[in-house]
């Protein structure tokens, strides 16, 4: 997050448009990987902001590896999210309007290993048993994933 940190030194906590990517990691049991974040004490998706020169897929792959220790063997772009619903004010006061490319990853390798400064815990959850304290910027993405996932199994 070097680029955003540099911008913050100039603009303070004022709203920024923050471009990034996140990953819906789904295991062989159809469980979703979530991380308990250190910044807001909520469960969210692995992901983060883009650095200069990166592609959105590179952001997703880098953040997945950094935050979880997993290497994506393949990823598929699900959607790009933006708008008022993706405004977020961090607990320390920084404000962002997120533009998030979301990928789904069902093929991965490696052992779960949390990035201590950003992640308190990593866990796979059934979509029927997700934690209550989901990170606000990830909630619309997870809601849409569940809606589409359930739709697949209902033939919609």
Nutshell version of this structure?
By secondary structure, the protein is of the alpha+beta class.
Strand content: 35-45%
- Number of distinct helices: 3
Class based on secondary structure composition and strand pairing: alpha+beta
CATH topology: Nucleoside Triphosphate Pyrophosphohydrolase
How many structural domains in the coordinates? 1
The pLDDT mean sits at: 94
Strand count, sense and closure of the main sheet?
Answer: 5 strands, mixed
CATH architecture: Alpha-Beta Complex
CATH homologous superfamily, by name? Nucleoside Triphosphate Pyrophosphohydrolase
Helix content: 25-40%
In whole angstroms, the N-to-C terminal distance is 39 Å
The helix/strand series, from N terminus to C terminus, equals HEEEEHEEEEH
Secondary structure tally: strands: 8
The CATH class? Alpha Beta
CA radius of gyration is 15 Å
Tell the overall outline: globular
State the low-pLDDT regions, or none.
Answer: none
């Amino acid at each position: 997050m070097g680029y955003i940190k540099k911008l913050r030194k100039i603009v303070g906590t004022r709203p920024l448009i923050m471009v990034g990517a996140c990953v819906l990691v789904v295991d062989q049991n159809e469980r979703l990987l979530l991380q308990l974040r250190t910044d807001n004490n909520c469960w969210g998706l692995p992901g983060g902001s883009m650095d200069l020169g990166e592609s959105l897929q590179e952001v997703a792959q880098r953040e997945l590896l950094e935050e979880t220790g997993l290497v994506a063997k393949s990823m598929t772009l699900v959607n790009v999210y933006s708008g008022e619903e993706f405004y977020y004010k961090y607990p320390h006061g920084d404000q962002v309007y997120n533009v998030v490319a979301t990928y789904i990853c069902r093929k991965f390798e490696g052992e779960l290993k949390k990035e201590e400064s950003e992640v308190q815990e990593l866990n796979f959850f059934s979509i029927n048993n997700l934690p209550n304290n989901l990170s606000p910027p990830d909630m619309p993405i997870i809601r849409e994933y569940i809606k589409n996932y359930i739709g697949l199994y209902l033939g919609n």
